Amino acid sequence: MALLRISLRCMQISSAKNVWNLFAQTRSIKRWVAPVRRELLHRSKKLGPQPPEPRSSFIEWNYRAELFAFGKRLNEDFQIPLLQIALTQQSYVMKEKAKQEELGIENSDIQLSHNEELAELGQRLTKAYIEAFVTHSLPKVPTEGHNAITSYLLSVDTLAHVALHLGMKELLLDAVYPPSNEAMSRSLLAVIGCLQKSSGLERAFSFVRDFICTQLNQKDLMEIWQIDKPEEVLKQICQKRGISEPEPRLIGDCGKNTILATYFVGMYSNKKLLGKGFGEDIPTAIQLASLDALQVMFEIQEHRKPFNFSLEVESKSIKLPLLSN
């Protein structure tokens, strides 16, 4: 009797295990997967590298919905027709007109506009705000430094970098794909001009501050503003501020007669240390010490206070050229 009970219990356990195996998820790869993938790889190598396809070539692409989503991602209210013009390049308009001529369409009801005017408006707005922001944030930096930083923020590479990470690459209407950096930067400026016409001047300035001025975050400003002759600039700054002419002094050296010689030089004025620097020879050490002194005097050293990107520069204090509405 006991033997019968044990056998029944074993049958129950085995049946429970079989039920669990039926419901358990099993992962397996079919036999046809590997040959198909090998064949696809062989065909792709045979074709060679293919040009990238734009996202608009996909069947589910809805350009108007993408423009609406672009504005909502940025938390801005754009006029959709104006935003489409801001993202349309002149080359695209010429390409479409050439297509119409090939098809024999002379008087078309569809009139395409490009973004040249909006880009010029955005260029003026962006430059005016960046100059005001840099001047307000770095009051001790001379005009040459302000101009260098402004030129960096307005450069094609910087604007194209911002436009790419805002997702504008797939929205651009251009004759070629992928669009060039010039087209990306021009479209970003046109979007700023479009925002000014859609939501006003304050929203355009906030856009410039939040997306373009923030490119200065954690940047070494001395790499942006490269001073050719720091010793002469230091003398000029000391003369303007009424400080006696700086002079270099050797603080220490190491390994004079070796290929790994190091010199430690300090720039002094009235027995006050202005800056210090190391170099493989004395002229290099003097140059680095002068750069260090300039960083301290302009308050742009690496451990400086971070930029205040929540700063709102009043539009009344920004000198704007004539804006055509």
Automatic annotation (TrEMBL):
Q: Which organism is it from?
A: Glossina brevipalpis
Q: What is its main location?
A: mitochondrion
Subcellular location per UniProt equals: Mitochondrion
Q: What is this protein called?
A: Large ribosomal subunit protein mL44
**A Gene Ontology cellular-component term:** microprocessor complex
The UniProt GO MF terms for this protein read: double-stranded RNA binding; ribonuclease III activity
Q: Name one GO biological process term.
A: RNA processing
Q: What family is reported?
A: Belongs to the ribonuclease III family. Mitochondrion-specific ribosomal protein mL44 subfamily.
RNase III domain location, by residue?
81-221
Q: Which domain of life is it from?
A: Eukaryota
| SUPFAM superfamilies for this protein | RNase III domain-like (SSF69065)
Looking up Pfam families in the UniProt record yields: DSRM_MRPL44, RM44_endonuclase
Give a yes or no for keyword Ribosomal protein in this entry: yes
Q: Which CDD domains match?
A: DSRM_MRPL44
Q: Which UniProt keywords apply?
A: Mitochondrion, Ribonucleoprotein, Ribosomal protein, RNA-binding, Transit peptide
